[in-house]
């Protein structure tokens, strides 16, 4: 048999609400047995310590906490449908979701795939309580019951297209389900399979049966293979594993808990009785599994036995194992059973054992068995090559092999052989390609259907990460892969896990911080790149990012290599060394180009594609390069020539910033022909350029008139007539470099508008040197294109402060501003924060580019924390005949009081209905879905938010017709297009009923 990998798992068992707690329970030999909860049945009413008809000899068992809690909103299940569903279906939905997440997969990514679902189940007590109350059987009650629906629910809500079936072979059901899932994988029928088991005890029926059959332990505890063994104790729980072919799991770098080497299933046939175990069949199924797995009995280190603690059952099982292992007296095989911890979980027994074995192989430790201190001497374990573990067994290095048995009450037996995961699964291989990756900081992302759910899961993730040491890179990388797909998004950067935990807790606790770090995914952000110009440079600009980010380092090196033939010196080295000569024009301009190009390409490689581009003066060269105007080599040649030629110009010029508009300055400039407008940054932010003496005279005039000014520290009078001597030489280089039409929308600061099919050729770049920079005009035009975000691409965010002083766009809102570099101290975290901001608002980054190959290792994050505020259960516990009937589900289900932060099931406010048609519509929707009328806001979607389906739509139409007979002529086909939202339906009904409004009011008054 080819091997099957267990790549994900989740479970809930008595005393163990999740897989981590399950392992802790096993390692401390914990006891999950407790009195029968009052919500199940009146244990005292059905109890008799001595054999009596209709009575059980125990009032104890293994019960999970809160089986009535269900996050119906998460799965878009209406309250009415949730109340009708067998709790086994609800438990499986949540367990399967968490198991898929544990496999390192966002469950939504499996939608539409051939993933199979195989569920082991033997109890159907919910149906016994509800399908016999014929007056209350509804469409929801019908689909809420039945074995098949346990598997089908998972397939439906996760949109899985592979095989979907429930398996009932009694106590062996879930291990048989695993066997079937493995065979489906090996045959190619599916590529993923979810195998699960579930059991919830709602009535004392099986407890009475076990008692009447002489199989029930009075204290409700199984004592496997012990001298104290006196019968079965009932248990319950749910567990699920995600299975893949091992070769596929390793190829995708998935973590592997353990490997299933072989499974086998057979039947007792005609034995001493249909419920009596058959040693020979058990012996044969174990041998068949060994053969399929290709192992010898001596290789098996331990076996998780069926171990019910009944005298006959333990004797038959030990004899069957002894047939294979009797020759290993010197190294007896370890034997145990989890039933000693919380009882016989019946249909979930096989999955409980499988998860225990998988965790034991994963942790390389086999937990001690409860009740092993006094073994049953009549079993002669030592003589059969077996031993009970009185203390945990540490598995040796290398491959360890384990067995697992599960035997059905009706004679269907199953055995599985597992082995520890291969070393390559523990340490996935690094990426094979050499593409640059990594930005120097990790991002942690989380999504949820609602803001309340997001906050709840921030707490859960902080607790999980705070409980153990974890590398922040793999944690962040995994979060993008697994915790994605929902509407509400959270993102935060962190240099290490301790800081991450602090930031998660702070965000969950502080509403303002939470709002700042969250957003709603919709369309991708409409992003504008703004490239800074000369004056923003400084020694060692972007040095921190260069040191921390291999990705940025790669593109800065690329720009430096393109510049080197034209500059004669490494611009990169000059910048990073802290050389003050970076302020000289010959170096400042190519240095700013290199930084702008490298940052822009880094952002593009991360998936941040500019929708709009704008460059301030010299910043326009990097913008043009990214827009496809010319290749990198041509752009490098052009910018290097520009800086060098300007540097050769004589001194004597200057630039003066004036807090005044250009129109205000026109009269003054008319008297100073040696000075002109060089830059227009805003309505009252103008820079003058020209002869230094003339600028000095103007500065004195402005000072007398109390107009604020500031003389800029520049080497030359840029964008003035003093640039004229270099223009011819520059034009020659520009003609050779060429320049085409931008392939992306580029807003020109030469023209102050969007370039409309115009080439940025030699004439353009010559004029670009001589004419003023119309930044304010260009950005105002860009703003009317409706960018959601501006990303300032440069060594410091100087343009962002300028844009805040410009008038609002006609839409009335400014784009959010972000910058990957914020100053001399910037490193990878500022770049990560930029990606985080864009992700929160709809960007889907190329996450693999964000992390170096060594960080792209799966990490098992804490499971999704479901809302447990909503409770759905029977109206009361099961009672003896003669007591008032209390078990039926109410037509309008009562939900738990909402006192916690998740109380807002539906948060849109709805004004009081203004007319009877509206009231009728809302009442009908509420009745069909089980909602209060006050919860129904106009923007709620009937399918996506309220969980409506075709059956509910038919019922809705019927209820509407009862109150509004005018709708009888309306067909379902006419109604369906009007069901997008509650508001759409209400508006349609108002229009449709308008001609009969008077009679309608009479009928609905």
Question: Helices, strands, pairings?
Answer:
Layout: E1 4-12, H1 19-27, E2 33-35, E3 60-62, H2 79-84, H3 87-102, E4 116-120, H4 125-130, H5 139-143, H6 147-158, E5 164-167, H7 173-186, E6 193-199, H8 205-212, E7 237-245, H9 246-251, E8 258-267, H10 279-293, E9 300-304, H11 311-325, E10 333-336, H12 339-342, H13 349-363, E11 365-366, E12 386-388, E13 393-394, E14 401-407, E15 412-420, H14 423-426, E16 442-448, H15 451-466, H16 472-482, E17 488-494, H17 497-509, H18 511-516, E18 518-520, E19 527-531, H19 543-548, H20 550-567, H21 571-577, H22 585-605, E20 612-615, H23 619-626, H24 632-647, E21 653-658, H25 662-670, E22 675-682, E23 685-691, H26 692-704, E24 709-711, H27 727-737, E25 746-748, E26 753-754, H28 762-770, H29 775-783, E27 789-793, H30 798-803, E28 816-818, H31 828-840, H32 847-850, H33 916-929, H34 950-963, H35 972-975, H36 982-993, H37 997-1004
Parallel strand pairs: 4-5, 4-6, 9-10, 9-14, 10-12, 19-20, 19-27, 20-25, 27-28
Antiparallel strand pairs: 1-7, 1-8, 2-3, 6-7, 8-15, 11-13, 14-15, 16-17, 17-18, 21-23, 21-24, 22-23, 25-26
Helix pairs in contact: 3-6, 7-13, 10-11, 15-17, 20-22, 20-24, 22-23, 22-24, 24-27, 27-28, 33-34, 33-36
Describe, in short, the structure shown.
This protein is α/β, with parallel strands linked by helices and 1005 residues long. It is built from 37 helices and 28 strands.
